[in-house]
TrEMBL record:
GO terms for biological process: proteolysis. GO terms for molecular function: peptidase activity. It holds the Pfam family Peptidase_U32. The keyword Cytoplasm does not apply. Belongs to the peptidase U32 family. PANTHER family: PEPTIDASE U32 FAMILY, TRNA HYDROXYLATION PROTEIN P. It comes from the Bacteria. The keyword Ubl conjugation does not apply. Keywords: Hydrolase, Protease. This is Collagenase-like protease. InterPro entries: Peptidase_U32 (IPR001539), RNA/ubiquinone_mod_enzymes (IPR051454). It comes from Halarcobacter mediterraneus.
């Protein structure tokens, strides 16, 4: 639980590496899970009980927290397995369980009374009456429905001042109310609310009109370029409203979605929202700065969703043009634990100018030698450029690409989990066209 008056920054942890990255880039706590009792089965498979325990110990050694997801909706046939799972997860000593179903809340209270309960957004709490019911059941934090307004959050806090309230501020949105969708179950046999959503809403659909009286079927032609992504929701992005959220005094934790997303996404989202929180507290909130950083991640277009606007007032929450995520940067490399090498994640050539994106509080020293140089530019950012591309065994390469698993030498030390990044080819082309047209 949040042990001080500061708003907690809560990030996704799909595996142990992402857990470490989230903490390095500013998260106070992370959430993740093991097995089919989490709503993200794909990410749950990346954590074993052993690595999840390692992550918990890693967090606690740094004064951070880990919340374990047990937020699936079990069948009757799964309840005995669920009981064993709750007991085993409790032995790992997470800081809370995230639970969705009332019956599972009660089961957790019976089997692991020492573990605090956080109520999943899937429980769809929108008012203080429902919040009171769960408080009486032993829940001490609610993760409010994504459709809730900030005014309603304040109203719940007014009636239940001891109840912690957590809200989503960033990540994928579902076109269905609070994620209660069955499209994937109907079409693919994969049940969204049991952790195996096939993301059918992201597909492109062809629309038809039928007349049952004489069995005719017409394909509906759409305006070129409009697209047929009729269910595809934009991604939530409330970074520009962090000041309003914190000013309300009703929110205890702001949460980022994305356990199945990339390590780079985990880093950038934690970094941007950490800066937003800290800048607000320092009286220098700058929304454009956080949006510029978040735009470097792959996304489906951004919307500020429903917290500060009523759902029926919104006209910009859907993306009908594309489902593929877009981002302005590519991750070129990830710095290894010895801080002297990096693993290539994209492609690197000699003399490329590569931006250094380092964890919060990092110190970077400029240097130059036969391998290359690390330097700071007028924009205040640090960069690295290679004169030679050398493997750990001093083999020189003309270039290095993401399929190469060799460690590549750095000109100087960079902090562990630092990321190297370059503008995407599309972004570079757009920049060139913009400068040329000017």
């Amino acid at each position: 639980m949040n042990k001080n008056n500061k708003v907690e920054l809560l990030s996704p942890a799909g595996n142990l590496e992402k857990l470490k990255i989230a903490f390095a880039y500013g998260a106070d706590a992370v959430y993740g899970g093991v097995s089919h009792f989490s709503l993200r089965i794909r990410s749950g498979k990346e954590f074993s009980f052993e690595t999840f325990k390692e992550g918990i110990d890693y967090a606690h050694a740094r004064g951070k927290q880990v919340y374990a997801t047990i937020n699936g909706f079990p069948f009757n046939s799964q309840i005995d397995l669920l009981k064993k799972h709750i007991i085993k997860m409790a032995e790992l000593e997470p800081d809370a369980f995230i639970v969705a179903a009332p019956g599972v809340v009660r089961l957790c209270r019976e089997l692991a009374p020492q573990i605090p309960i956080h109520l999943s957004t899937q429980a769809n709490v929108l008012n203080y009456l429902d919040a009171q019911v769960f408080w009486d059941m032993g829940v001490r934090r609610i993760i409010a429905a994504r459709e809730i307004s900030l005014k309603d959050v304040q109203e719940i806090k007014k009636h239940l001042p001891e109840m912690e309230i957590e809200i989503f501020v960033h990540g994928s949105m579902c076109f269905a109310y609070s994620g209660r969708c069955l499209v994937s179950a109907v079409q693919m046999g994969r049940v969204p609310n049991r952790g195996s959503c096939a993301n059918d809403c992201r597909f492109e659909y062809t629309l038809y009109a039928a007349n049952e009286d004489h069995s005719t079927l017409f394909r509906l032609e759409e305006e070129p370029g409009v697209g047929t992504y009729i269910f595809n929701a934009k991604d939530m992005n409330l970074a520009s409203h962090v000041d309003e959220i914190l000013e309300s005094g009703a929110v205890d934790s702001i949460k980022i979605e994305g356990r199945t997303k990339s390590p780079y996404y985990a880093a950038v989202t934690a970094y941007a929202y950490r800066k937003a929180i800290d800048d607000y507290e320092a009286g220098k909130f700058e929304a454009d700065k956080y949006q510029e950083e978040l735009a470097t991640t792959k996304n489906r277009g951004f919307t500020d969703a429903y917290l500060v606007h009523r759902p029926f007032d919104r006209t910009n929450t859907q993306n009908h043009e594309y489902a593929l995520s877009k981002g302005s940067y590519e991750v070129s490399g990830l710095i290894t634990e010895d801080e002297e090498h990096f693993y290539c994640k994209y492609k690197t050539y000699p003399n490329d100018e590569i931006e250094i994106f380092a964890p919060i509080g990092s110190t970077i020293e400029e240097c130059e030698n036969e391998i290359g140089k690390i330097y700071k530019k007028e924009d205040g950012k640090f960069y690295v450029s290679f004169k030679k591309i050398l493997t750990e065994t001093n083999k020189e390469l003309e270039s290095v690409h993401s399929g190469n698993t060799n460690k590549i030498k750095l000109p100087g030390k960079l902090p562990y989990l630092t990321m190297l990044r370059v503008k995407s080819e599309e972004e570079q082309q757009n920049s060139c066209e913009g400068s040329c047209s000017n």
